[in-house]
Amino acid sequence: MNSKDYIQEIITQVEKRNPNEVEFNHAVKEVLNSLEPYFNRNPHLINKGILERIVEPERQIYFRVAWLDDLGKVQVNRGLRVQFNSALGPYKGGLRFHPSVNQSIIKFLGFEQIFKNALTTLPMGGGKGGSDFNPKGKSDNEIMRFCQAFMSELYRHIGSDVDVPAGDIGVGAREIGYMYGYYKKIQNLHTQGVLTGKGILYGGSLVRTQATGYGLVYFVENMLNDINETFKNKQVVVSGSGNVAIYAIEKAQSLGAKVIACSDSNGYIYDKNGLDLNVIKKIKEVNRGRISDYLIDIPNATYVEGFRNIWSIPCDIALPCATQDELDLDSAKQLVKNGCKIVAEGANMPCTQEAVNYFLKHSVYFGPGKAANAGGVATSGLEMSQNSLRLSWTFEEVDQKLKQIMNEIYQSAKTTAVNYNDPNNLVLGANIAGFNKVAQAMLAQGIL
Ligand code: NDP
Ligand code: 2IT
Q: Which residues pair with 59 in a beta bridge?
């Protein structure tokens, strides 16, 4: 069988086995479709069952999460952990708390995580989890009770050498703190390496909070460098205003960029003078408020309802940092028309397949999420290393390691793209480079 037929056969099988899982099918197609030249060069791998196995999670865990709200009413949510692939190390990946969470979304995130983690060069397998719990509008006590209820089941499936969850949408330092505390209590174990993104006082790593956003900007610095450009005076649009967005804005600003817009799920703000990040941090990190509140402090800025319209703002660099499928073909056309030169994904799969194809066709230099946003999980890996050593490195040390890893990820995606005669296609480069590591490890470990 040739590569093309082999890949198509697996894609068809995935569609058949996982009907209605739109996001998961999208993620699988994106990776598999770029592997044709790889299998052309490695035809001996076609009959080793690698693709057949890699698209099937090693284990999936579903559980009920029952908790009491502030009115004393019983609430029930669904908990989920997908342990996707452990060829390179313990399963590793975040937990997402958002009402949209379902099997398809967690599987797409877990699948992406396999290759992303491979690219970091650290020994981590891929996994993801979460719940359809909606943290918005919940009191701090409700968040704590939910996190404890969630961990009261998850604890039996995780461990520092088994599966190491962390944060994602709706899960930050507060939630990790409650989950870690509960894990420690019921296990009677201070195994710090069981979760990452912990507070600095109990085993967290400096820079983990900033890591995804900073790492994204380090990755884009590499992209800019290759086209003889820098961040200086570039107009940048960042979607979202959560953890990834805030620290991408911070680093881009520190490198001389002017970040003019960001958003939340209701709408976006535009500030032609450049965003005041302290105001955004106060709104999002302290008050847990809406981005429209920006106008209370900065009345000259503009607020527009509808977060998708943010891509109509002219910019040099666009960094989607909110959620999947937030940048579609129409938005891609707008960006290209307005002269945008670089798009890099801080979020997981924020650009639709049509949008990505449009960027590649129209010479927009495109940084795919599994490479560009790998700084978060890479620093989680560094947190695990520090926990094992029972030491903590300084901010500068971790930041330096993060930068080094992002440079290596870029070089590995770029070199692979060049090697496969498609030098500006970092989608191809990242997918092949990540896949190759996982495939080689799976091959070495036998049929599992
Ligand atoms: P946060 O919860 O901190 O922030 C999410 C942001 O996205 C908020 O501003 C949120 O707005 C906005 N948003 C807009 N539309 C949606 C929607 N439909 N569903 C959910 N959120 C929406 O999450 P993070 O910043 O941590 O994550 C952002 C993206 O980055 C995700 O794709 C995540 O998977 C990815 N990522 C995160 C990493 C990390 O280390 N945290 C690492 C690598 C990738 P609102 O407040 O209105 O909901
Ligand atoms: O998507 C991601 O890479 C994350 N949410 C971070 C995962 C982690 O284990 O730090």
A: 83
Residue 275 CB neighbours (<10 A): 23
Please name which of 220, 174, 182 lies closest in space to residue 65, comparing C-alpha atoms. Answer: 182
CA of 117 to the centre of ligand 1 (A): 19
Residue carrying the six token digits 């559980």: 63
What contacts 139, CB < 8 A, 6 or more positions away? Answer: 70
Averaged confidence pLDDT in the chain:
98
- State residue 76 phi and psi, 5-degree precision: -125, 125
Residue 165 and residue 61: Cα distance in Å, rounded? 14
Q: Give the mutation target among 107, 265, 308 for probing the ligand 1 site: most ligand atoms within 8 A of CB.
A: 265
Q: Answer whether 336's CB lies under 8 Å from 328's CB.
A: no
Q: State the pTM of this model.
A: 0.98
Q: Which of 92, 116, 128, 184 is catalytic?
A: 128
Q: In whole angstroms, give the CA distance from residue 207 to residue 258.
A: 23
**Of the candidates 173, 170, 195, the residue with the CA atom closest to the CA atom of residue 184:** 195
Instruction: Let me know if 128 is a catalytic residue.
Output: yes
Residues forming beta bridges with residue 238, ordered by sequence position: 319
State residue 18's pLDDT score: 98
Tokens 């707008």 belong to which residue?
334
In angstroms, the Cα distances linking 86 to 92, 330, 412 are: 9, 38, 22
What residues does 76 pair with on adjacent strands? 66
Among 124, 168, 237, 383, name the best residue to mutate to test ligand 1's pocket (greatest count of ligand atoms within 8 A of Cβ). 168
DSSP string, 378-421: HHHHHHHHHHHHT----HHHHHHHHHHHHHHHHHHHHHHHHHTT
Name every protein residue with a CB atom under 6 angstroms from any ligand 2 atom. Answer: 92-94, 113, 116, 166, 168, 196, 348, 376-377, 380
Residues 425-435, mean pLDDT to the nearest whole number = 98
What was the pLDDT predicted at 31?
98
Q: Measuring from atom 43 of ligand 1, which residue has the nearest CA?
A: 373
How many Cβ atoms sit within 10 Å of the Cβ of residue 444? 8
